[in-house]
Amino acid sequence: MNAINEEPEHQEIEALLPWYAAGTLSRRDANRVEQALAGDRELARQYDLVREELVETIHLNETLGAPSARAMERLFAAIDAEEARAPRHSRLFDFGSRIPEFLSSVTRRTLAWSATAAAVAILVQAAVIGSVVVKEQGGPSGPRLTSAPSEGSYAVVRFAPQATADDMTNFLRAYKATVVEGPLKGQLYRIRLSETKLPEEEVGKIVRQMQSESNIVGFVAAKE
Amino acid sequence: MHSTPDEVLIGRIANGDRLAMQVLYARYHVRVFRFVVRLVRDEATAEDVISDVFLDVWRQAGRFEARSRVSTWLLAIARFKAISALRRRRDEELGEEAAAAIEDPSDNPATALEKKDKSAMLRKCLAGLSAEHREIIDLVYYHEKSVEDAAEIVGIPENTVKTRMFYARKRLAELLKSEGIERGWP
Questions:
Q1: Is the domain B1-93 a CATH 1.10.1740.10 member?
Q2: Same domain, A113 and A45
């Protein structure tokens, strides 16, 4: 790279010297540079210049100090303001539909205590879970709820009547779970816990953790 | 001591964990600040930018893709916001000549006496590089970014990262030469 008539290999090695000095080359490239340095005095001199630059760049940056507490105060004030305007769980997953609003405003206060309304809630819940799947899996052309892949580890879950759309999506996201089938008999949904087969103990541990969230799930169990 | 991996912190932030946010901030705010202040050349602006960077992290943590390193993701956001901040400042059309005239951050009466010192001169010339060249030098030498990570942060191909670094170093050598320091390269 230094002169037109230099060999491409030499130029390439020369170009890698800054990363070699910083220790950010792959093992393979680092070996190439080491071998070239061992037999090339001009390249070794180049490397000395690179090391000087590296040392002084670090020195220069270290003289720049640190931000004042104002930056952190400003950040957390902004976070507080956002949380006050829109609680975090409602931002995590944007359905782009009115269903979540409907659920959050109606389900908790009104529907949960009425048998008729509970049936409505189940229907809406299914719609919401359907929309989760559509959203997560790439739209209407994506896999449908009734197509259940067999690989991985699974559980069946029934959401609590009072669980809102946000509760459900946050729950699924927290466990990196995906709804793959449902609603089944008893308003159960089959969810995938992992795309790979997990040890039985690990599945049991996840299920126990899920069971502790009784405000969101009414029933959960491991399923092959 | 075992510290929580960055990716785990991001996952917790995605779930609204403020403590995780504080830990991530404590871990990276100084480095992000230094990266930004070298681009915008103004501490108050840099502080505003880093607040915005971490606010974006708070908002976007759920969309973080683990194929990037968290530090690379942070610097990519920081770079974007620093450039936006520069665009908002009408007087930020700093060419290389104007930048060279800016006071060396390590300039003070004591160091002024050492101007002939090669190390001090090297730092002065590093400070006098164009924004594009400062950026790539800082990413590689100070922020320890690989070719791939630097390419992701700056948004250019990996080969361009290598050639940009080469020309940044070449320009540095020219600046040193103009100050009377001959390095014998290029």
A1: yes
A2: no
- A208, A110: one domain: yes
pLDDT tens per residue across span B97-124: 444 444 455 555 554 555 458 899 999 9
d(CA A20, CA A16): 6
**In the numeric block, which tokens belong to residue A174?**
């927290």
Number of domains comprising chain A? 2
Check whether residue A58 and residue A99 sit in a common domain: no
Chain A contact present for B78, CB below 8 A = no
Interface test with A, best of B17, B35, B49, B51 (most A CBs within 10 A): B51
CB pairs under 8 A between A and B: 130
Model-level pTM greater than 0.90? no
Say yes or no for a CB contact (<8 Å) between A71 and B48: yes
Start-to-end C-alpha separation, chain B: 45
Q: Angle, nearest 10°, between helix axes B43-60 and B6-14?
A: 70
Number of helices (H) and strands (E), helices first, in chain A?
Answer: 9, 4
Residue A180 is part of which domain span? 94-223
pLDDT at A168: 80
User: Taking the domain B94-186, which CATH number applies?
Assistant: 1.10.10.10
Residue B110 pLDDT: 53
- Closest residue to A60, CB basis, from B33, B43, B123: B123
Residues A57 and A118 in one domain: no
Please give the single-letter amino acid code of residue A223.
K
**Segments making up each domain of chain B, as ranges:** 1-93, 94-186
Q: Report cis status (omega within 30 of 0) of the bond before A183.
A: yes
pLDDT of residue A181: 77
The C-alpha of B38 sits at a distance from chain A's nearest C-alpha, in angstroms, of: 8
